[in-house]
Design a protein that fits this description.
By secondary structure, the protein is mainly beta. Helices cover 7% and strands 36% of the residues.
């Protein structure tokens, strides 16, 4: 499973192989790595889409017979649960994909869905043991989209019924009855962790929701991170 996080290509210079002497190779086999893999640094709390205890998705809206038949046929087949990412396909429901640009401890994956009216959402539930002010981050992967021009990639200049559409991801950060709405402009987002804002939380669960209302064609739900100040 660790090989899921290795780069696709590894290049070594062959100019002087003598410099690689003296290395003891581990015999081929299956080994248990003590403690597993943890990408979080001290003071960080990360919840990934692979954490079924702390990550959840809204139920898909299945209104047509065709979509119901397709979903049922997928359930009946014992097929590989991960798909490849494509920014031109239509995803009527949350679909699990893998890509080297995504975040993951063992498997670099995320759930994706086509943009819509905001009725579909992904939710990360982050447990906090200490109250305080926390920075909230979201892991973005703008390089997933195959285009050399970000204006074209994110449909930055398109209009929707005469109204200018935005390239924002729309989040709701909630604890108890308090809720903050935050947006992340994906046209300007950096590859990796992006700061959504700083918030004061109590020692309880914080919920970060991402809905599918956006001018971006495909919404990617990957991972969130909280860091106590």
């Amino acid at each position: 499973m660790l090989s899921s996080n290795l780069p696709h290509n590894v290049n070594l210079s062959s100019s002087d192989w003598s410099t690689y002497t003296g290395t003891e190779l581990t015999p081929e086999g299956v080994y248990t790595v003590r403690g597993g893999v943890d990408n979080a640094l001290p003071g960080e709390i990360i919840v990934d889409n692979e954490d079924s205890r702390l990550f959840s998705l809204s139920r898909p809206l299945r209104t047509g017979y065709l979509s119901k038949w397709i979903d049922k046929s997928r359930e009946n087949r014992n097929e590989f649960i991960y798909e490849g990412f494509s920014d031109w396909r239509t995803y009527s429901q949350w679909t699990l994909v893998t890509d080297q640009n995504l975040y993951g401890d063992y498997i670099r994956s995320a759930y994706i869905i086509s943009s819509g009216d905001g009725g579909q959402y992904a939710c990360w539930s982050v447990p906090l043991s200490v109250a305080g002010v926390y920075d909230v981050y979201y892991y973005a992967s703008p390089d997933l989209y195959n285009s050399d021009n970000r204006n074209r990639r994110w449909n930055n200049n398109n209009n929707n019924n005469g109204r200018r559409v935005t390239n924002d991801y729309n989040f709701e950060i909630e604890q108890f009855n308090m809720q903050d709405r935050v947006s992340l402009n994906m046209w300007r987002a950096e590859e990796g962790w992006n700061l959504l804002g700083s918030f004061r939380f109590e020692a309880d669960t914080v919920r970060v929701r991402l809905n599918n209302k956006s001018g971006v064609r495909v919404i990617v739900a990957d991972a969130v991170k909280l860091i106590k100040r």
